[in-house]
Amino acid sequence: MKKLVFFATTFFAITALLSSCNESKLKEAEAQNTELTDSLTTVMAAQDSLLSILTEITDGMNQIKEMEKILTTTNLNSETPSKKEEIRANMVAIQQALIARRQQLESLEKKLRISNASNAKLQRAIASLKEQISQQETTIAQLEAALREANIKIESLSSQVNELGNQVETVTNEKSAAEAEAQRVANEMNECFYVIGSNKELKANNIISKKFLGKTKVLEGDFDRTYFTKGDKRTLSELPLHAKNAKILTKHPAGSYEILDIDGSKVLKINNPTKFWELSNFLVIEIN
């Protein structure tokens, strides 16, 4: 009887122990299965993310190539400010997209590392995508440098244009001043002065005076210059004298002029201005 009880007790103990071991192994197996499932889920999600990022990187490369084409075929100096601003905005957008993709890769890599689901294939894929992003960032940096250089050239060109404009303005002003001075000198050289008056009037203004033996002297004293009328040798061709009789008291070459009688009044006609004024710039005419 005692042996039977012993065997029964032993049997139940062994059964309980086996049952406990099986339950522990089952829980461990379930945990491992859950971990494997989680890892598999993480890997699948990572693969999907990598595929999405790869598509974005490919699109980004196409955008960068298009930007390269624009900067190499477009004369930025001839573009409007709005077009240049559009190019800059597109450049910034591409650069920001590259930064976002790099952050996505780093976040994905961290998740794989924490979940212990990382494997060599995924790591190589991530490393390859990072390298592509680095190459694109380098290209963008080069394009930005080219754009900055173009801006410098534009500023330089604007500076040169402004400087040239200033030079042209200076030359124009100098030319205008020179022309004005030349005109002033020409006008001064062609100034002439004439006076028409009776013998009494001419004497009163010291234009003429009587000397020894009654000889008339002309413009030898301190005569009143304001009494004369200023004229231009180039345009003074006729001078109405408003008198029936007139004679020229200053010296002017014969043949360079004539005094005509028109409608009962005398008129001085200068036929050769250069010759007429070669001896004097003053003309004194006595009328009565």
Low-confidence stretches: 1-8, 10-14, 29-38
Question: What topology, given as strand order, has the largest sheet?
Answer: 4-1-9-6
Percent in strands: 5-15%
Fraction of residues in helices?
55-70%
Assign the structural class, choosing from mainly alpha, mainly beta, alpha/beta, alpha+beta, or little secondary structure: alpha+beta
Distance between the termini: 189 Å
Largest β-sheet summary: 4 strands, mixed
From the alpha carbons, calculate the radius of gyration and give it in angstroms.
Answer: 56 Å
Enumerate how many helices there are, as a single number. Answer: 5
> What is the average of the pLDDT values?
75
Compact summary:
The protein is of the alpha+beta class and 288 residues long. 65% of the residues lie in helices and 14% in strands.
Model description:
This protein is of the alpha+beta class and 288 residues long. The chain has 5 helices and 9 strands, in the order H-H-H-E-H-E-E-E-E-E-E-E-H-E. It has a 4-stranded mixed beta sheet with strand order 4-1-9-6. It has a 3-stranded antiparallel beta sheet with strand order 5-8-7, with no helix packed on it. The longest helix is centred in the first third of the chain and has 72 residues, at 2-73. The chain is rod-shaped. It starts with a helix and ends with a strand. Mean pLDDT is 75; it is low at 1-8, 10-14 and 29-38.
